[in-house]
């Protein structure tokens, strides 16, 4: 395969039918999003957000792109902005991984760190302040831009239907950070088949299940406020997965399947296994593995105690 640009590698990722023991003889299929060129599911979002801004006349060839991000969206936005030669400022809470921040810089982005304690809310506030002081700037603002769920509605979700063909999807399981991945795909799958259950996944310390907000080690998922995109989608269940369970699946996937998954993928897998216990025998469960463990080596992802 000869390609002309790295951006052609975005999307159309493989769907792995996990060769593991699943409760009730069910099947778990995982979309391997670490195979995007920037290493995560958020390459799709970066490409879509920048193109959307161009199409809507909000970005011209001099515009500075500014975005608050936990990291993967920053890499995706920086990749897309680089293709269009647009300067990029990414506002990142300092706790997010060294690898992700290094990759953003390597792509040419400028990083502004906010204190970890302020969470994503402080990064959002800071991005708005920088934008107010930067002439001809554009903040895609993944946390409220409908282009975020639209990205997944138009790309990843149809890929699932194309790959699984006539095999119905009984449950869709995905983590939520901004909520774009879950909302876009859940909406599409419900339109295809009303019987598909949508299960959203969060770590302990995220607020969806009404628990107290606190920090967690699972990176990329967990919300500090209810994503606005959730108003348009049916959520059949919310599963809260402890960090220890997510990291256990991360270790298992490497040790038994030769697959390097990040901790949000580990949480998605732990949740999918729980869902399999609740569903009838022989069900088809689809989940998403957003990125690889390789960008969390500095956080000792394989050495974390349960
Ligand atoms: N996993 C990882 C590793 C991520 O970086 C993100 C994005 N923050 C997610 C899951 C969640 O995706 P979304 O923002 O679409 O909810």
Descriptive tags:
alpha/beta, Rossmann fold, binds 4'-deoxy-4'-aminopyridoxal-5'-phosphate
Share in helix:
25-40%
Write out the strand line-up for the largest beta sheet, numbering strands in chain order.
Answer: 1-2-10-7-8-9
Output the helix-strand order. Answer: EEHEHEHEHEHHEHEEHHE
Strand content: 15-25%
CATH class of the largest domain: Alpha Beta
Summarize model confidence as the mean pLDDT: 96
Number of helices: 9
- For the record, the CATH architecture of the largest domain stands as 3-Layer(aba) Sandwich
| Rg from Cα | 18 Å
Structural category is alpha/beta
Bound molecules: 4'-deoxy-4'-aminopyridoxal-5'-phosphate
Q: What is the domain total for the residues?
A: 2
Largest sheet: 6 strands, mixed
Number of strands: 10
Distance between the termini: 42 Å
Pfam families: PALP (PF00291)
EC number: 2.5.1.47
Family: Belongs to the cysteine synthase/cystathionine beta-synthase family.
GO molecular function, one term: cysteine synthase activity
């Amino acid at each position: 395969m000869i390609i002309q640009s790295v951006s052609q590698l975005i999307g159309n990722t493989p769907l792995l039918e996990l060769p593991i023991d699943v409760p009730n003889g069910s099947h778990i299929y995982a979309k391997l999003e670490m195979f995007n060129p920037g290493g995560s599911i958020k390459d799709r979002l970066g490409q879509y957000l920048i193109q959307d801004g161009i199409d809507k006349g909000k970005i011209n060839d001099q515009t500075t792109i500014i975005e608050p991000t936990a990291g993967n969206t920053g890499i995706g936005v920086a990749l897309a902005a680089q293709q269009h030669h647009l300067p990029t400022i990414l506002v990142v809470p300092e706790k997010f991984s060294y690898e992700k921040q290094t990759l953003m810089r390597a792509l040419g982005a400028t990083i502004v760190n906010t204190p970890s304690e302020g969470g994503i809310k402080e990064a959002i506030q800071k991005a708005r302040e920088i934008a107010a002081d930067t002439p001809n700037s554009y903040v895609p603002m993944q946390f409220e831009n409908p282009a975020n769920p639209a990205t997944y509605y138009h790309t990843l979700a149809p890929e699932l239907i194309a790959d699984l063909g006539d095999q119905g999807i009984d449950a869709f399981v995905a983590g939520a950070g901004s909520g774009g991945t879950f909302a876009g795909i859940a909406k599409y799958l419900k339109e295809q088949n009303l019987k598909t259950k949508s299960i959203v996944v969060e770590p302990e310390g995220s607020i969806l299940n009404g628990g107290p907000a606190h920090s967690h080690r699972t990176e990329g998922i967990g919300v500090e406020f209810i994503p606005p995109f959730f108003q348009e989608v049916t959520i059949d269940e919310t599963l809260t997965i402890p960090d220890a369970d997510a990291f256990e699946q991360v270790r298992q996937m490497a040790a038994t399947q030769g697959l390097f998954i990040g901790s949000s993928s580990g949480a998605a897998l732990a949740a999918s296994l729980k869902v399999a216990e609740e569903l009838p025998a022989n069900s088809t469960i689809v989940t998403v593995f957003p990125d690889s463990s390789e960008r969390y080596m500095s956080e000792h992802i394989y050495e974390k105690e349960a």
